[in-house]
Amino acid sequence: MERCYAKKYGMDFLDIDYIVPGNDYDITDLSFTLVNSTRRAATINVRFNRSAGAIDPISLFYHLKLTRGGWRIDDVAYEKETLAKSLSGKC
What we know:
Layout: H1 2-9, E1 28-37, E2 41-49, E3 58-67, E4 70-78, E5 81-82, H2 83-87
Antiparallel strand pairs: 1-2, 2-3, 3-4, 4-5
């Protein structure tokens, strides 16, 4: 998979942090909103600013699935990309 990613994107590492997009941050105004849920899946919208006074809040969507071990993150969406899509690109 690493060779595939390097070939497709020209780099040997994932170029986006799906937890906090960016390198320097001081999270403020953190909020969680349940977008939808069923007995086995849920989507949570997480919004925050990367620094005090920031005018463009970050909005992430966490897609959760219920497993035998409890709730787990199934995917994370940021803008038009998802972590699963980034990691499953075809070479």
